[in-house]
Amino acid sequence: MNMRLSRNEMRGKAQTVLGLVDPATLGQTLMHEHLFWDFIQPGRQDASTTGGPDPRDYWKLLMGGTADPRDIRQRDRGVAARETARMVEAGGRTIVELTIGGIGPDPEGLMEVSSESGAHIVMGCGHYVEDCQDPDNHNRTIESFAQEMIDQVQLGAWRTQVRAGIVGEIGCQWPWTDLEKRVLAAAVIAQQETGAALTIHPARHEDHPWMLVEFLKEHGADLSRTIIDHIDRTIFDDDRLFRLADSGVVLEWDLFGLENTYYALADIDMPNDGMRIQTIRRLIDRGHLGQIVISHDICNAIRLAEFGGHGYTHIQQKVLPHMSKRGYSGDEINAIMIDNPRRLLTFV
Ligand SMILES: [Zn+2]
């Protein structure tokens, strides 16, 4: 049985699946990824998912025109370790893995992947959107969710000895549900009690991030240590974007590598990487460099290098060089890839 880590033992350190580390060793960090996932509805659990999706379905799967259980479930530790090793080879050092309650976390798998690849892996905790949650959660209180998340950070998560290093990605759908609000209120308590950062998957609605900011303020969250994920598919105008940035919250563009206009999960025009880089530039010019992080949010096998996708190396190999070409300085790139993640992942 693990001993509970105290706030004092954790303060000033980051927590990976292998234990506490000096945050200076985190290096280039992808703030929102999944190495394991399972989006298969209960009742279809017998579907075969070995071997990965058929690459001939690449375009259809990317467009959401077809579903393949081999695409929406990834449990293979060997695949995850090889994909992570590629990132290390490309210059990446740390992956924040946010597969949490409802989408199939594998804490011991993450330990194995970290040992084999040499990457730091920081694990999330809490619960994803209501549609994915265990039906038993409906009867649970804020206090019960909060204690669970505090334990996941200080003791161990999902009946393992592996501890989480960040709270989230806390899931919200549209319309935002009461259960999800209880989980988020609990996540704020976990942030306050443990000193961890909080990362939130907003609902697919352009007003939801601001609703989150209001909720977080009401509940006393530390906005400078709270990340609103998936800005790329949620916010499409500078008014909303700048207002969010002015609140002090951290903004995450975590769909780098998705280059298609057509997004299966909402009626939006998905930006491509060039547009993401232009939008982030406008925020930097307005003084918000310290509030920006980026990632790929890979949660389809078709996006893995092994099955024909860009893998976890895309940011190192394509995005960062493109940022340089478009006038981003080395310091700006380091802020986004190293300094901001390090600040967020350091317990306070
Ligand atoms: Zn995610």
Polypeptide structure, described:
This protein has 348 residues and is α/β, with parallel strands linked by helices. The chain has a single domain, classed as Metal-dependent hydrolases (TIM Barrel), CATH 3.20.20.140. The chain contains 12 helices and 12 strands. It has helices at residues 7-10, 58-63, 69-72, 77-89, 107-117, 142-154, 178-194, 208-218, 238-246, 273-285, 314-325, 330-345, and strands spanning 14-16, 19-21, 29-33, 37-38, 73-74, 94-97, 120-123, 167-171, 198-201, 226-228, 250-253, 292-294. The strands form 4 sheets. Strands 8-9-10-11-12 form a 5-stranded parallel beta sheet. The chain has a 3-stranded parallel beta sheet with strand order 3-6-7. Strand 6, helix 5 and strand 7 (120-123) form a beta-alpha-beta unit. The protein is globular, with a radius of gyration of 19 Å. The mean pLDDT is 96. Residues 32, 34, 98, 169, 297, 299 line the site of zinc ion. A divalent metal cation 1 binds at residues 32, 34, 169, 297. Keywords: Hydrolase, Metal-binding. GO terms for molecular function: hydrolase activity, acting on ester bonds; zinc ion binding. A divalent metal cation 2 binds at residues 169, 201, 230. Its cofactor is a divalent metal cation.
